[in-house]
Structure formats: structure tokens, C-alpha cells
Amino acid sequence: MKRTFLEGATQRVRPLLMTVLANIIGLIPVMASTGTGSDVMKPIAIPFVFGLITSTLFVLIVLPVIYSLIKERELNTHGRLTILNVKG
After folding, report:
1. pLDDT truncated to tens, each residue of the chain (88 aa)?
2. What are the angstrom distances between the C-alpha of 53 and each of 3, 23, 50, 69, 87?
3. How far apart are CA 16 and CA 31, in angstroms?
4. Calpha distance 70→5 (Å, rounded)
5. Is 77 helix (H, G, I), strand (E, B) or coil?
6. Distance, C-alpha 8 to centroid of its chain
7. Among 9, 13, 38, 72, which one has the highest count of C-beta atoms within 10 angstroms of its own C-beta?
8. Residue 25, class by beta-carbon neighbours within 10 Å (0-12 exposed, 13-18 middle, 19+ buried)?
């Protein structure tokens, strides 16, 4: 069965979003805290949350677009696409 990159990307949406949201929800108390030690933990949690957000956007939007452009270029150059038959 041949799968396109869009089908692969759509299968990754739910597990990826569940993981990212669980991490972000777990870090909300750290980012909102004002008690002892919060001055040390906030500078660690804030970049982590924004890194999760940007990496999620990169994996779900940017990588499939880049892959699509590469495959389109291959089709225009060689007149055919090379598809690996991966069993999974």
C-alpha cells in the first residue's frame, strides 16, 4: 500500500499533540508559580514550552512542505517518483 506524506503527517497529529499538550500543561504550574525556587525554574520552563510549540509546528507544517517540494522536484527532474516499499 502506497502512502503519501500527507497521510503520514495526519497520522502523527494526534500522538504528537497529546504529548506536547501534556508537557505544556505539566509546566503551567512551574511558569505560574511565585514561591521559593520559582526564580530558578521559570527561566528553564519558558524556553522549554516555546521550544515544544515551535518544534510541533515545524514537524507538522514545515517538514511535510519541504518533503513535498523535494518529491515534486524529483518528479519534474526524473519524470518518476522513487517510493520505498517499507513494511510496517
Report:
1. 356 666 777 788 889 999 999 999 999 999 999 888 888 999 999 999 999 999 999 988 888 888 888 888 888 887 776 666 767 6
2. 27, 10, 5, 24, 31
3. 22
4. 11
5. helix
6. 12
7. 9
8. exposed
Contact 75, 64 (CB under 8 A): no
The answer to whether the CB of 64 falls within 8 A of the CB of 6 is: yes
How many Cα neighbours within 13 Å face the side chain of 40?
2
The string over 65-84, giving b where at least 16 C-beta atoms fall within 10 Å of a residue's C-beta and e elsewhere, is eeeeeeeeeeeeeeeeeeee
Tell me the one-letter amino acid at 64: P
What letter does residue 37 receive in the DSSP assignment? Answer: T
* Residue whose C-alpha cell is 516555546: 50
On whether the CB atoms of residues 5 and 66 are closer than 8 A, the answer is: no
